[in-house]
Amino acid sequence: MVIVIGSINLDLIATxxxxxxxxxxxxxxxxxxxPGGKGxxxxxxxxxxxxxxxxxxxVGKDGFAIEATALLRDGKxxxxxVAEVHAPTGTALILVGGDxxxxxxxxxxANAAVLPxxxxxxxxxxxxxxxxxxxxxxxxxxxxxxxxxxxKAVSVLNTAPYLAETAPLLAQADYVIANxxxxxxxxxxxxxxxxxxxxxxxxxxxxxGRTIIVxxxxxxxxxxxxxxxxxxxxxxxxxxxxxxxxxxxxxxxGAALEAGHDLEAALxxxxxxxxxxxxxxxxxxxxxxxxxxxxxLKAGTAGGRA
Length: 306
Ligand code: RIB
Prior knowledge:
Layout: E1 2-5, E2 9-16, E3 28-36, H1 38-48, E4 53-60, H2 63-74, E5 82-85, E6 90-96, E7 102-107, E8 129-132, H3 138-150, E9 154-158, E10 175-179, H4 180-189, H5 197-208, E11 211-215, E12 221-224, E13 229-232, H6 245-258, H7 263-277, H8 290-299, E14 304-305
Parallel strand pairs: 1-4, 1-8, 2-6, 4-5, 8-9, 9-10, 10-11
Antiparallel strand pairs: 2-3, 6-7, 11-12, 12-13, 13-14
Helix pairs in contact: 1-6, 6-7, 7-8
The chain binds alpha-D-ribofuranose.
């Protein structure tokens, strides 16, 4: 089973011709709301990939909660372990520019009430894949990593959003997934040696015995294990909206591990899914189905050892 411990948000999304500079006002082209939150997005991606998924999280007792969880319900994600608390459902204010790039401000609300005590409800078991991000309290992320190890489950920590305090947690996860900005910041915080990013990734993998995966947007993905370095390309696409692409990568990666794929195959599936997620707007509405991913994989994407 894939168990996601993380955030659930309602995304309030405006599209603009270009992102404003600080202090500037720009006119928007469109507005919509859509389910989001890094945890929820990853849970839905794992479910669309074919995984059996349980979500540990929290929403408010408000109308936003219904909209925020609608696609998770459609996707048959087990929500019996999502609490209803006396705080507003988390929200994310998102601006998407004409080039598909975005800026996001998240107001955690109910996500701040996901606490270590809630993890008992997760019923972690040997072989489970536990997906974590950094939009719920850090003590919960730490407890999730410990709980996964105690249960002999496999933990995957997505280091988004970057938080300097979590640097010591990275070595506790079996797999760490970071984007290039996050990895470069953690490499500084952890004082990783190496003349370039790949060398610093290798240093992390060798020192910790863990696998570090860095997503490079249109340039694909690079992964370092204690034994080797792998690279996998992204699909060549014109992005419409990159919101949720990283979450799609994490969810598909977790589901692929759960299904027994090896690291290279899991990376390839996840990279293709993340590319396809950039072709539509909205985090959850853009997550591809497993059939779409299979078709794109058949159409051919190369991956290999560096
Ligand atoms: O990663 C994208 C997500 O970040 C959005 O859905 C938003 O809710 C924020 O959590």
